[in-house]
Amino acid sequence: MALLGLLLGGALLCPALGAAFTVNPQTGLSISGFDPVAYFTDAKPEAGRSDLELSADGAVWRFRNEGNRAAFAAHPDIYRPAFGGYDPVGIARSRSVPGHAQLWAVAGGRLYLFYSADRRADFLADPAGVLQRAEHAWPVVQRTTPR
Questions:
Q1: What is the sign of the dihedral through the CA atoms of 135, 137, 140 and 144?
Q2: What whole-number distance in Å separates Cα of residue 113 and Cα of residue 76?
């Protein structure tokens, strides 16, 4: 089930992924320091702790506990936001727009971040349709997103 959560901040593209990925340019933090595993285990965004960090994919990821950090280390592809943290509705429209950590949904076992509450609502109205269009558009959007 998809759930809501708003984060403001800049984005930097992380070429280390081989794909565009959003990272705060001032801090190096991915998803502004929110724990990516908490979206799945707690069904809400939870701030990670600075003493529980992991560097991966050219970004710093924070976690609220050791178990979440270990889960991410073992399976980062499960817990990283889909589309590199870019809004899937934007991707479906052939645009790379960074998502915000508190505007989110988990669908089909993946975490999606959204630029706005309206885009999140568009996604929730037709997740399969949005994802089909986004998956189709992503290779081109990914190649044309500045690094």
A1: negative
A2: 16
The residues pairing with 41 across neighbouring beta strands, listed in sequence order, are none
d(CA 49, CA 76): 18
Same domain, 42 and 19: yes
Same domain, 65 and 104: no
User: Domain span at residue 55?
Assistant: 12-79
pLDDT tens per residue, range 10-44: 333 333 333 446 788 888 899 999 999 999 999 99
Dist CA 42 CA 61 (whole Å): 17
121 domain residue, yes or no: yes
Q: Computed from CA positions of residues 68, 73, 115, 28, in that sequence, does the dihedral angle turn out positive or negative?
A: positive
Please indicate, yes or no, if residue 113 is contained in any of the structural domains: yes
The structure's pTM equals 0.84
pLDDT tens figures, 37-79: 999 999 999 999 999 999 987 889 999 999 999 999 999 999 9
Say if CB 96 and CB 90 are below 8 A apart: yes
